[in-house]
Specification:
The chain has a single domain, classed as Rieske Iron-sulfur Protein. It has a four-stranded antiparallel sheet with strand order 1-2-12-11, with no helix packed on it. It has a four-stranded antiparallel sheet with strand order 3-4-5-10, with no helix packed on it. A four-stranded antiparallel sheet has the order 6-7-8-9, with no helix packed on it. The longest helix has 6 residues. It has about 140 residues and is mainly β.
Length: about 140
């Protein structure tokens, strides 16, 4: 598989500025009893393949990247690169996510390393679609 690099400025890479935004509607998700639930009707960013959101808040045990994959499935990643701990971004037109830093560690949808300096896979979580919600067990 050919690895495509995200187009980023050197400042974005040096400071680890993620291209993926937090949801426009902060009320589109909840976290309780070890489960992150995202109401797809309130998260238009996930309506099309390639769309993604960062889910971050103090009551979450970790940062999560949620992605509507290029293959039409939904994916959830621990949003922390295994190289420098920076956030991840989906790479448009591919089935990969990439670290937003200088190292450009690139991972497959299953979390496996495809390229870059990371030594371990990135964490992934099972995603279920139930009644218009994504349910992610953390």
């Amino acid at each position: 598989m050919e690895v495509i690099t995200l187009k980023r400025t050197i400042l974005q890479r040096l400071f680890g500025i993620s291209a993926t935004k937090i949801p426009l509607d902060p009320g589109c998700w909840t976290y309780a009893d070890g489960h992150l639930r995202i109401n797809l009707g309130r998260a238009p960013e996930l309506s099309e393949p390639g769309g993604a959101i960062r889910v971050e808040r103090k009551n979450l045990p970790q940062r999560i990247l949620v992605l509507h994959g290029e293959d039409g499935n939904f994916y959830a990643f621990r949003n922390r690169c295994r190289h420098m701990g920076r956030r991840l971004d989906p790479v448009p037109g591919t089935r990969t996510v990439q670290c937003c830093s200088v190292g450009k560690a690139t991972y497959a949808y299953d979390g496996g390393i495809l390229s870059g300096p990371a030594k371990e896979p990135v964490g992934t979580f099972a995603v279920q679609v139930k009644n218009g919600e994504l349910v992610i067990a953390l």
